[in-house]
Amino acid sequence: MTGTTEDYAPHPHIGGRTAALRALAAWRAAAPGAPRVVVLTGDAGSGRSRLLTGFLMLCEPEYRKRLPLDAMDPSTVPPELPPPAVPSAEGLTAAQVLWLIADHFGLRATGVEGVYAELAALEEPVTVVVPDVDRAGPVRAADEPARLVREVLAPLAATETVRLMAEVPRPLAAELAEGLPPGTAQIIDLDAPEWADPDVLVRFAQAALNPEFGAPELPFTVDPAVRLALGAAIGRRAGSPLVVQLAVNCILMAPEGFDPADERFLPTSVGAALDLHARRLGTDSQTLRMLLAPLALAEAEGIPVQLWARLASAVAEHDMSPAIAGGMLLAGPFVQPEEVPGSDADSDGADEGRTLLRLLHPALAEEIRAGLPSVAAAQTQIAMSLLEAVPEQDWGKADPYVRDHIAAHTLEAGLLPQLLTDPGLFVHADPVPLRAAVEAVPLEQLGAPARTYLRTAPLLTRTQVPAELRAAFLETAFVEDGLPEYAEAIRERLGLELPWQTLWSQPVAGVSAVTVGTLPGTEGAAATPVAVLVVPPGTPGARPVGAAGAEGGESGPAALVHGLVQPGLLDDADLGRIVRPSEEERAAAPLGLSRGGDYLRVWNRADQEVVAALISDTPFTAADLAPDGILLVATERGAKALRIRAAGAEIAS
Hints:
The protein is 38% helix and 15% strand. By secondary structure, it is α+β, with helices and mostly antiparallel strands.
């Protein structure tokens, strides 16, 4: 039997939210009448993440042992069950979230539709909780949260064997629930009267002011009566957990002159927290907002601290360095610094740690962005400033933030297509955010180099490959797409040791077999290395080949003869005179070739080390390796020849 709320201790992490916890516990228990799908929503800063984190503590068998379950309302405590799948969407694409779910349940599907089919065929229901949908995607402007809801969460919600809970922003909540049979989904909006809990804000504020929980010892924090009264006033006015947190941060960071009895400086919204804090410190609110603007426009984990003044000055269009020099008292309540270790092998100073700055909550970013005259104009200023920060315009020397996220800034500025002409950026930038940014641009707006990058991007994001291998894949792709100047720029300008050089590419469909060989010269001339491509009958320029390999009738396969080293078809070559390498010559060659379903590896026979590893965006159909190290490869797109450089032995697959 369940008593009143006052009879029980609140959840120690949440401090309340009894009605919402009861609904979540009923969902977890699959209680009669409980929905199969729960959509948790509310305004940014409403406490969705805190509620979900507290609930997941109850769903984790080991963690729940540390909670005072006997003192809590039994109707808020779910039964002890195996933990659900919890793929956080923060920073991930919709596809990445789906494959995390597939991996969690050990599904064997190789395609998206197969994942849903396998889930639907399960004998027992599975439980999936997806937090942080509002933070999905490696690029803010690509609108990944909407894609995640439409392409992953909606199909999951429609799968009867999946019990789904998702934390989503309010504009997407109804979209996720609509179309499901009545009673299937429940939307829990934490700002709606039936789910709101004003008392939780008071408890939160009082705890945040308590020195026992980390607050500094100040006159209004050590006196219990004053502390409780101040916490009650903050909670009563705040309206959301985020505003409570900002109010407390502002007070504790600048306590001088603060009067706990004066409620005029206690905020009622995120915007009021910014404005009141600036006023209390004798600064205009616009200065504070300009200080924080680069953080509101930042990508990923935030901007490096050394770029803060540069970017703030760019957005404000005047020097903000003096304000930043003494500005942590002003900006500190709203900023979350993070020390990250250096681990980037593609840039100088990789082993040094660095400090990143981000806003305390996305709702702060929304507030500051809403106050800018033009987000696109501000992003333009940031993008230009980031470009100026690239040493000698060498992307290999650029700060990792500049290199990896300038595309996202130029995307929101509407300038990304103009940026996508530098092969150095294609090679050195993290391919995950760069790919996401490029995919957000309509295809007709992209130039030829950007289209080549977009075609190659799945190879670059498939595995974490170093810059040298990214450069090699792109060099080949530029040759394939008829952009030799970009391939040459990668080979000559970037200073990288590529594992191979692409000699030529021949776009021809249906290559079923390839072989290397030599065509003996006449009258003492040197032999010509050649590539023989077996192609379908009727291929332009091809000649029929008989069963024994001599020229024959039209019914058999056909062949094209191409120079192995020099590009160009050899239309007058005599197929019968071409000499293939003997088995002895192949065995004595320094390099060997192995082939899998979707990869090729060239290895050094002396030490068995892989010197080149190839993957392709279309299946390999044939391959052959000349004794002198020229690799002949065919895919569904055509054939190409690569000169393998044994110096690339350190680049293993």
